[in-house]
Amino acid sequence: MNIETWKNWAPIISLFIAIGAIGVAYWQILVSRNTSASTQAHNIYQQYLALCIAHPELASGRYIAQGGNDFQYAKYTWFFSSMLFAFEQILEAKPNDSKWVETIRFQLKRHQPHLIKSSTADSNQWHEALKKIIEEIK
After folding, report:
1. Distance separating alpha carbons of residues 103 and 98, to the nearest angstrom
2. What is the DSSP secondary structure assignment for residue 66, as one 8-state letter?
3. 102-127 as b/e, with b when 16 or more CB fall inside 10 Å?
């Protein structure tokens, strides 16, 4: 090929190289977002597990109120709200991840008795995916 042929093909070749570079950059952004969302979900769940370790009597889901002024039950309701908030954040970070959905479903089943009567769980403030799981378990 002579120099004139290269001059004619150079813009076309440059265009393909630029399109390829844009494709690679877009792919890197998607991978980075997915990695960040996974890290966020794992960190949130780790915090939830630390709370469970610190308060196994609340994490079991078997706590039953002992009367109107039951301080421990008040702690349980705050634990329950914190749990729902953590699960909502996980579902916001990884909304289409079936493993996270199953993990959350498993944990919520442990708290089904409170889930049924909880006004917090019934409120419309939660992420749609979490509301769906709550309704399935009720």
Report:
1. 9
2. -
3. eebeebbeebeebbeebeebeeeebb
The stretches of the chain forming alpha helices (DSSP H) are 3-54, 56-59, 71-93, 98-110, 112-117, 119-122, 128-137
The alpha carbons of the chain give a radius of gyration, in whole angstroms, of 25
Q: Where are the domains of the chain?
A: 3-137
Q: What are the tens digits of pLDDT across the range 43-80?
A: 999 999 999 999 998 998 887 777 667 788 888 889 99
Question: For residue range 73-98, what is the model confidence (pLDDT) as tens digits?
Answer: 888 889 999 999 999 999 998 888 89
pTM of the model as a whole: 0.73
Q: In degrees, to the nearest 5, what angle opens at C-alpha 111 toward C-alphas 118 and 94?
A: 95
Cβ neighbours around 38 below 10 Å, total = 14
Q: What separation in angstroms does the CA of 101 have from each of 7, 17, 96?
A: 56, 41, 8
Give the type of residue at 121.
A
